[in-house]
Amino acid sequence: MIREKGVVVGVKGGMATVRFERSINCGGCGLCGAPRDAGIVIEAKNEACACIGERVIVECGDVHPLLSAFLIFTLPVIGLCGGFVVGWRVGGSEKAGFAVGAAALLIIFMAVHLYDRSLRRRDRGWPRVISVGRDAPGDSGGGE
Q: Is residue 136 very low, low, confident or very high in pLDDT (cuts 50, 70, 90)?
Protein backbone atom coordinates (compact mmCIF):
# COMPACT_ATOMS: atom_id res chain seq x y z
CA MET A 1 0.00 0.00 0.00
CA ILE A 2 1.11 3.54 -0.78
CA ARG A 3 0.54 6.32 1.77
CA GLU A 4 0.92 10.00 0.93
CA LYS A 5 0.14 13.28 2.69
CA GLY A 6 -1.98 15.94 1.04
CA VAL A 7 -4.49 18.75 1.55
CA VAL A 8 -8.21 18.43 0.90
CA VAL A 9 -9.29 20.92 -1.77
CA GLY A 10 -12.86 19.72 -2.22
CA VAL A 11 -15.50 17.46 -0.67
CA LYS A 12 -18.57 16.06 -2.44
CA GLY A 13 -20.65 13.26 -1.02
CA GLY A 14 -18.41 10.56 0.36
CA MET A 15 -15.44 11.64 -1.78
CA ALA A 16 -12.64 14.11 -1.10
CA THR A 17 -10.47 15.81 -3.71
CA VAL A 18 -6.91 15.83 -2.38
CA ARG A 19 -3.90 17.76 -3.70
CA PHE A 20 -0.38 16.39 -3.21
CA GLU A 21 3.07 17.69 -3.93
CA ARG A 22 5.26 15.04 -5.49
CA SER A 23 7.44 13.35 -2.91
CA ILE A 24 10.73 11.52 -3.33
CA ASN A 25 8.78 8.25 -3.08
CA CYS A 26 6.56 9.07 -6.05
CA GLY A 27 7.65 6.69 -8.75
CA GLY A 28 5.17 7.84 -11.35
CA CYS A 29 2.86 4.83 -10.92
CA GLY A 30 0.22 6.43 -13.12
CA LEU A 31 -2.57 6.44 -10.52
CA CYS A 32 -2.97 10.22 -10.67
CA GLY A 33 -2.37 10.70 -14.37
CA ALA A 34 -0.34 13.86 -13.70
CA PRO A 35 2.88 14.79 -15.52
CA ARG A 36 6.07 14.15 -13.55
CA ASP A 37 6.72 17.84 -12.82
CA ALA A 38 3.18 18.77 -11.70
CA GLY A 39 1.30 18.51 -8.42
CA ILE A 40 -1.16 15.68 -8.08
CA VAL A 41 -4.92 15.94 -7.55
CA ILE A 42 -6.96 12.78 -7.01
CA GLU A 43 -10.36 11.78 -5.67
CA ALA A 44 -10.38 9.52 -2.64
CA LYS A 45 -13.03 7.96 -0.44
CA ASN A 46 -13.45 10.28 2.52
CA GLU A 47 -13.46 7.63 5.27
CA ALA A 48 -11.98 10.07 7.83
CA CYS A 49 -14.65 12.76 7.20
CA ALA A 50 -12.04 15.35 6.21
CA CYS A 51 -13.03 18.95 5.45
CA ILE A 52 -11.60 21.40 2.93
CA GLY A 53 -8.16 22.71 3.95
CA GLU A 54 -7.27 19.82 6.29
CA ARG A 55 -4.04 17.87 5.95
CA VAL A 56 -4.75 14.17 5.42
CA ILE A 57 -3.09 10.84 4.86
CA VAL A 58 -4.35 9.02 1.76
CA GLU A 59 -3.79 5.30 1.29
CA CYS A 60 -3.77 3.89 -2.23
CA GLY A 61 -3.96 0.25 -3.16
CA ASP A 62 -1.54 -1.54 -5.41
CA VAL A 63 -1.45 -0.16 -8.93
CA HIS A 64 -0.62 -2.12 -12.05
CA PRO A 65 0.17 0.54 -14.67
CA LEU A 66 1.05 -1.92 -17.43
CA LEU A 67 -2.25 -3.78 -17.07
CA SER A 68 -4.12 -0.47 -17.00
CA ALA A 69 -2.35 0.80 -20.11
CA PHE A 70 -3.02 -2.48 -21.91
CA LEU A 71 -6.73 -2.40 -21.06
CA ILE A 72 -7.18 1.26 -21.97
CA PHE A 73 -5.01 1.58 -25.08
CA THR A 74 -3.80 -1.71 -26.55
CA LEU A 75 -6.87 -3.93 -26.23
CA PRO A 76 -9.21 -1.51 -28.08
CA VAL A 77 -6.69 -1.12 -30.94
CA ILE A 78 -6.40 -4.89 -31.21
CA GLY A 79 -10.20 -5.14 -31.30
CA LEU A 80 -10.48 -2.43 -33.95
CA CYS A 81 -7.83 -4.00 -36.21
CA GLY A 82 -9.03 -7.56 -35.65
CA GLY A 83 -12.64 -6.55 -36.24
CA PHE A 84 -11.65 -4.78 -39.46
CA VAL A 85 -9.83 -7.85 -40.78
CA VAL A 86 -12.71 -10.19 -39.87
CA GLY A 87 -15.32 -7.85 -41.35
CA TRP A 88 -13.30 -7.31 -44.51
CA ARG A 89 -12.76 -11.04 -45.09
CA VAL A 90 -16.30 -12.12 -44.20
CA GLY A 91 -18.13 -9.11 -45.67
CA GLY A 92 -15.87 -8.73 -48.67
CA SER A 93 -15.62 -4.94 -48.48
CA GLU A 94 -13.86 -2.22 -46.55
CA LYS A 95 -17.22 -0.86 -45.38
CA ALA A 96 -17.97 -4.18 -43.71
CA GLY A 97 -14.49 -4.14 -42.19
CA PHE A 98 -14.98 -0.65 -40.76
CA ALA A 99 -18.40 -1.58 -39.38
CA VAL A 100 -17.19 -4.75 -37.65
CA GLY A 101 -14.04 -2.98 -36.41
CA ALA A 102 -16.08 -0.14 -34.93
CA ALA A 103 -18.47 -2.61 -33.30
CA ALA A 104 -15.55 -4.55 -31.80
CA LEU A 105 -14.04 -1.30 -30.53
CA LEU A 106 -17.30 -0.31 -28.81
CA ILE A 107 -17.75 -3.76 -27.28
CA ILE A 108 -14.23 -3.68 -25.85
CA PHE A 109 -14.71 -0.17 -24.45
CA MET A 110 -17.93 -1.32 -22.77
CA ALA A 111 -16.20 -4.41 -21.35
CA VAL A 112 -13.35 -2.29 -19.93
CA HIS A 113 -15.91 0.12 -18.45
CA LEU A 114 -17.80 -2.76 -16.79
CA TYR A 115 -14.52 -4.18 -15.45
CA ASP A 116 -13.65 -0.75 -14.00
CA ARG A 117 -17.07 -0.52 -12.32
CA SER A 118 -16.65 -3.98 -10.80
CA LEU A 119 -13.26 -2.97 -9.37
CA ARG A 120 -14.78 0.18 -7.86
CA ARG A 121 -17.57 -1.81 -6.24
CA ARG A 122 -15.01 -4.13 -4.65
CA ASP A 123 -12.97 -1.09 -3.47
CA ARG A 124 -9.90 -2.65 -4.97
CA GLY A 125 -7.10 -0.12 -5.17
CA TRP A 126 -9.39 2.89 -4.71
CA PRO A 127 -7.61 5.71 -2.81
CA ARG A 128 -9.06 6.51 0.63
CA VAL A 129 -8.51 9.19 3.26
CA ILE A 130 -7.47 7.29 6.39
CA SER A 131 -6.58 10.09 8.84
CA VAL A 132 -6.88 13.86 9.29
CA GLY A 133 -4.74 16.60 10.86
CA ARG A 134 -1.37 16.86 12.56
CA ASP A 135 -2.08 13.77 14.65
CA ALA A 136 -2.11 11.66 11.50
CA PRO A 137 0.32 8.74 11.79
CA GLY A 138 3.74 9.59 10.40
CA ASP A 139 2.79 13.20 9.71
CA SER A 140 6.07 15.03 9.40
CA GLY A 141 5.21 17.39 6.55
CA GLY A 142 6.65 15.40 3.62
CA GLY A 143 5.89 12.22 1.67
CA GLU A 144 6.31 8.83 3.28
A: very low
Give the 3-state secondary structure of the chain.
CEEEEEEEEEEECCEEEEEECCCCCCCCCCCCCCCCCCCEEEEEECCCCCCCCCEEEEEECCCCHHHHHHHHHHHHHHHHHHHHHHHHHHHCCHHHHHHHHHHHHHHHHHHHHHHHHHHHHCCCCCCEEEEECCCCCCCCCCCC
The answer to whether domain 2-63+125-132 has CATH 3.30.70 is no
Distances (CA, A) of 31 to 26, 92, 95: 11, 43, 39
Residues 44/92, Cβ–Cβ less than 8 Å: no
Tell me the C-alpha to C-alpha distance, in Å, between residue 33 and each of 24, 36, 44. Answer: 17, 9, 14
Q: How much is the pTM?
A: 0.53
pLDDT tens digits for 60-112?
Answer: 776 666 777 788 888 999 999 999 999 999 998 999 999 999 999 999 999 98
